[in-house]
Amino acid sequence: MRVFILVFIILMSHLALAKAETIFRYERIDFFSNTEAQEKQELETEDKQSAEIIISEWAEPIISPSGRISVYVPPKEVRDFLDKPDSENARAYLQWNLKRIKKFILAQELLRKEAKELETMKETKSLLEPALSANARDLISNKANYLFYFMLKGCPSCEKQARVIEDIYLTHPEIRIEVFAKGYSDRELENFRFSARQDKGISSLFKVKSYPAIAVFNKRSQRYMISGFVDKERILSLFK
Hints:
By secondary structure, the protein is of the alpha/beta class. It has helices spanning 2-23, 33-52, 76-83, 87-128, 134-142, 156-171, 186-189, 202-206, 232-237, and strands at 60-63, 69-72, 145-152, 175-182, 196-198, 213-217, 223-227.
């Protein structure tokens, strides 16, 4: 009897478990499976990225925020010369370096010209203001009288006037002369004995409508705008 009761209890226990599984269907849940897979993927990515790094005396690996790896290598002329400093490699290195230096010189010259143009433009605007500021008045009185000459290529009167301006430039250093030209190349402007530059809109500030044209600003803050050819004596009289 006792054996029968024990078997009956065991049988009922199995039936209860089976019934509970049908009511509460569940499967195995692994809370660490995603983390393990992610760590494995990261390790594989790191190994792949590490393989892209070039081990070299001239290689400098750069890692961007996104993790992308790029490598900087100096130019071949530099590497060849430092690895094997013979006359042939030295010549190649010097030629490569001279090209760089020429570019630096050209860029510096362009910057110098642009800075001078901006300075002249700013100074000219201050002279053309209806009421001169104290700084502009000091600039005129302390430095020099101003003569702005505007010329146009192909204008016979402009060529004649240019010779007069050149004479004043050579004999009257107390007069500051600025010459602006239209239609001339930079090489052609170099042939004048005075300093001449491209117009670049300066004539529009003076409202020049015909050539040749001369603008005079003397130390007494007087202003004159003259169109057409003007002889030397008349121009100098405006500065007295």
